[in-house]
Amino acid sequence: MASAAEQLAANMNLGVFAKATELKKRIWFTLAALVVYRFGTWIPVPGVDPHVLADVFKSSGGGLLGMFDMFAGGALRRMTVFALNIMPYISASIILQLMTTVIPSLDALKKEGEQGRKKINQYTRYATVVIAAVQAYGIAVGLESMSGHSGAAVLSPGLFFRFTTVVTLVGGTMFLMWLGEQITARGIGNGTSLIIFAGIVANLPNAIAGTLELGRTGALSAVLIVFLMIMAVAIVAFIVFIERAQRRIIVQYPKRQQGNKVFGGETSHLPLKLNTSGVIPPIFASSILLMPITAAGFFAAHGPDWLNTLLALLGRGQPLYLMLYLVLIVFFAFFYTAVVFNPVETADNLKKYGGFIPGIRPGKNTSDYLDFVLTRLTVLGAAYLAGLSILPEILISRFNVPFYFGGTSLLIVVTVTMDTVAQIQSHLLAHQYEGLIKKAKLRGRRG
To answer: Could you tell me which PROSITE patterns the record lists for this protein (predicted)?
Structure first.
């Protein structure tokens, strides 16, 4: 009986999907935009020898640069027009969000609604151009100092090469920022997250093939490979469980009488996610670490000894790198949670509409209680994010396995997939309700 009901529900969803023309257009637009992005990750920057760059990256592209290349979908390793990917935009967003907490004018602008949000987005775009230009110039200078077994990485170094590299990389980042906004507005899901998701998924087959090749050559044991596969499935299940975990706070609305009718008296709940900040803290933390370390990595060959020592300490699996990574993840977990959820504002809204938490007085007591509960949840969420992010670093440093078997990559893939599926389901549900309303109106006219 249950299987028959599930089959009937699935057939109904398929029928609704077949009629949801707008949803299909959104899905096709998203897929086309991601295909355009993947094409761009293979268009090389002019004047760079890709073979020399591949040799240099193979010898020194681990650690944070390897993580950057993972987010860029291999574009950094190939030094293509999308080598910076969308990371400058993420860095600019971090800076603007931090500034809104310390600059009153930006905080007031944030509270102006849609108009204020547009202005902050415009400031974010300007900051993206500046950050991308600085990173692109550092990459151009670093490329000129690179050389491999077959010669120099740059064919014709000089001011013209630096100018064309900066223009190319900044243009690629701005195009990806625009593409992400178009996906968010005209497609399905969050455009920025889907671009990072596409880069990770594109490299996943190579990671699996590389792992199997290591097993064939004997570098990894068969037992370890099986363990990694089981662990990947277990981590996916664990991520889904945690991302769906909520603390539901009961909210009671009092009864009120208008004329002969009684309204209210309902009991609702306020859902607080265990991981309110989502996948943002690991991305923010890696982005902050990548800005100085990327430039330092390019200059390490001809730089001072202390720079080489610093890069060695910030290598994958090193204590200093792990400590900084953990501290940044925990900081951004609390910071982003404070940005997206304001206990004082929530308590004021509950008081405004007559709602209250049983046993807690409205107003300041309610906000203090919400802040207490949210802090405890954020401690667990930060520990969960930190553990997931550190796991692949330990696996890479101890067992030399691909980066994709845990941590930030799986977290991004799973959460973005869940959010996108949820949006598709909401579109289908809205379309189904529209169809039912139209049928009811037609029946009412006939009657």
So the answer is: SECY_1, SECY_2
Q: Specify whether the CB–CB gap between 199 and 72 falls below 8 A.
A: yes
Q: Kindly tell me if the per-residue pLDDT of 1 is higher than 50.
A: no
The whole-number average pLDDT for the span 286-311 is 65
pTM listed for this prediction:
0.77
Helix (H, G, I), strand (E, B) or coil at 8: helix
CB neighbour list of residue 125: distance below 8 Å, 6 or more residues apart: 92, 174, 177
User: In this structure, what are the phi and psi dihedrals at residue 150, rounded to the nearest 5 degrees?
Assistant: -100, 5
Reference 328, options 144, 64, 110; nearest CA is 64
3-state DSSP assignment of residue 409: helix
Token pair in block for residue 39 = 């094409």
- Domains of the chain (ranges plus CATH)? 2-446 (1.10.3370.10)
Contact 375, 311 (CB under 8 A): no
Q: Are residues 133 and 166 in contact, defined by beta-carbon separation less than 8 angstroms?
A: yes
Question: What are 270's strand-pairing partners?
Answer: 249
Tokens 């293979």, located at residue: 42
User: Who's near 127: CB < 8 A, 6+ residues apart?
Assistant: 92, 95, 96
Distance of CA 332 to CAs 106, 190, 340, 367, 374, Å? Answer: 20, 20, 12, 22, 15
**What's the token pair of residue 291?**
């800005």
In angstroms, the CA 96 to CA 117 distance is 11
Strands 267-273 vs 261-264: parallel, antiparallel or unpaired: unpaired
CA atoms within 13 A on the CB side of 406: 23
Smallest Cα–Cα separation from 297: which of 67, 43, 41, 44? 67
